[in-house]
Amino acid sequence: MSNSSQTTASKAAQPHRLIKSKNGSVKRNELRGKILVYFCAILIIVATLAITLFLTLKGLQSFVLNDVNVIKFITGMVWSPSGEGDFTYGAFPFIFGSFAITFLAALFAAPLGIGSAIFMTEIAKKWGQKVLQPVIEILVGIPSVVYGLIGLTVIVPIIRNHSSGVGFSLLAGMIVVGVMILPTVTSISADALKSIPSDIKDASYGLGATRWQTIYKVILPAALPSLATAVVLGMARAFGEALAVQMVIGNSKAMPEGITDQAATLTSIITLSMGHTTYGSVHNNLLWSLGLILLVMSYVFIIIIRLISSRRKV
Amino acid sequence: MNRRVTNNIATSVFVLCAVIMVATLIYLLGYILTNGLAEINWSFLSSNSSSFQAGGGIKNQLWNSFYILVMTMIFSVPLGVLGGIYLAEYSKPGKITNIIRTSVEVLSSLPSIVVGMFGLLVFVQYVGLGYSIIAGALALTVFNLPVIVRVTEDSIRSVPLRQKNASLALGITHWHTVKTVLVPAAFPGILTGVILSAGRVFGEAAALLFTAGLSSPNLNFNSWNPFNTTSPLNPFRSAETLSVHIWKVNSQGIMPDVLEIANGSAAVLIIFVLIFNLSARIIGGLIFSKISGKK
């Protein structure tokens, strides 16, 4: 009890003490706070630099220490880094698989996401928002392994029954990842559409344009750079998605010949092989090189987004 | 074609998009809950997992998920809130602030598997923590930090400037104003963001595969000495979480009831994620109405 009364007393006296800082404790407090805040800010930079540096150095080891040819690594078609016979380290099928999944998923999610965003912002402004906002939040919150599990138990069997393949396929990956990036694309698109000044919409309606004409001729062109950002952000997420893709894509090491064919992505190969290879071996070092490609690509996506948004300001 | 007809067709296409999205969510939740709830019973929740026989439970995985979540939050919330305070209050426009903003952007766009690989390289190998709860929590801190930074910055920036100026005008110093005026006023926003991020951390698996590991010792829930290898509190033991468990039983499991375990675990996972989501909304709403006096 005495403790709490003391703190109230000191709290009441604080403004007084703050103004007449005799003993310099205020200055010290101020400095301590500043140091804490600056320390955390610097820590964020250090963490980013550390991730970039460590993964770059580790990812380059296979080229520097193990003399793997970079060009052959990126363009080679055959991946057999261990076992009997000649070792070849061609990662092109995985690079292709990652890009294929990314673009296919964007193809799936972009129209649906932007369409839903238009529904939220232009058609049912009040209740559309009320219904879709929680839907987006829950879809974002569903863990990727759960998406993978549903892909595995629902989508893969459907594809198996309707095609000649085994079901594990690019198509299954496209649907699973497409649904996963859908909420990202929708919510960023909706923000973009909301930020368009209503003057230009009113002007269009005032000229007698229908809603579709206004959307098509006025709103979409004005929002295009921001909508592109939304899609690129979704693609960045698709490129790095690991477990859900790994569960449905089949992880075949050969190039896929069609959309219902099995494939593999950079992430799925890393997920599968990292635990089974000896740390420091060529095979293991190559996995870190695949990881380096992922790291480089996430920088590339950031640069693309910067370029798009710098065009928006002009 | 008549422009009204085109307009109506377009409108129905947009409505269809929204309907597909809502239907997807309803289907997903319905599928997981109808398939999973049947598997959930007390023995499923309270028994050890089994590696090849049927009837394994998820007791240890559930505990590990929460333990890693709590530890991640202990690391990432203070760091993230202070980082957010820097960006909202202390940063001056310039190179350093730009670098920090870019860093936050890079961190938040890194694929979680890349964060996991960094954790494997630095925390597991170089620092020598091995596959452990603490390595997993550190990796997830990297993953969660940018989220908390952004939420904090946004919440502090949305505090009316009048409140800050009033405090400064009373002669209260900057840091003291941050502590006693800005952070309390921004608290509902920060708390909501933290709870939502907790749901994300709870379900994350890719960053944990190589840091917290794919296996877990059978824990002895009578031994609370953190240095015992089977103690639930030991932060240096390997720990498979619930979401990692779902992935593992599906890709490597040889038990006859893989599907039942996966469905049950997914339902438990989804229920907790929904609880995090709902409580973020409810708590955010409650505190908002308390502070603003609105009903």
UniProtKB/TrEMBL annotation, chain A:
| Gene3D superfamilies given in the database record | MetI-like
**Chief location of this protein?**
membrane
User: Which domain of life does this protein belong to?
Assistant: Bacteria
User: Looking at the keywords, is Metal-binding present?
Assistant: no
Q: Does the keyword Transmembrane apply?
A: yes
Localization annotation: Cell membrane
From the record, give the transmembrane residue ranges.
Answer: 35-57, 87-114, 135-159, 171-193, 214-236, 286-308
Q: Which UniProt keywords apply?
A: Cell membrane, Membrane, Phosphate transport, Transmembrane, Transmembrane helix, Transport
Q: Which InterPro entries match?
A: MetI-like, MetI-like_sf, Phosphate_PstC, Phosphate_Transport_Permease
The residue ranges of the ABC transmembrane type-1 domain are 95-305
Q: How does it sit in the membrane?
A: Multi-pass membrane protein
PANTHER family hit by this protein: ABC TRANSPORTER PERMEASE PROTEIN YQGH-RELATED, PHOSPHATE TRANSPORT SYSTEM PERMEASE PROTEIN PST
Family indicated by similarity: Belongs to the binding-protein-dependent transport system permease family. CysTW subfamily.
Classification via NCBIfam families: phosphate_pstC
What is this protein's function per UniProt? Part of the binding-protein-dependent transport system for phosphate; probably responsible for the translocation of the substrate across the membrane.
Q: What is this protein called?
A: Phosphate transport system permease protein
Automatic annotation (TrEMBL), chain B:
Does the keyword section mention Transferase?
Answer: no
Sorted alphabetically, the keyword list is:
Cell membrane, Membrane, Transmembrane, Transmembrane helix, Transport
Q: Which residues cross the membrane?
A: 12-33, 66-88, 109-127, 133-152, 181-202, 266-288
Q: Does the keyword NAD belong to this entry?
A: no
Q: How does it sit in the membrane?
A: Multi-pass membrane protein
Q: Which Gene3D superfamilies match?
A: MetI-like
Domain ABC transmembrane type-1 stretches: 62-280
The cross-references to InterPro entries, in alphabetical order and at most eight, read: MetI-like, MetI-like_sf, Phosphate_PstA
| Localization (cell) | Cell membrane
Which NCBIfam families is this protein grouped with? 3a0107s02c (TIGR00974)
The entry's family comment says: Belongs to the binding-protein-dependent transport system permease family. CysTW subfamily.
- Identification of the protein by name: Phosphate transport system permease protein PstA
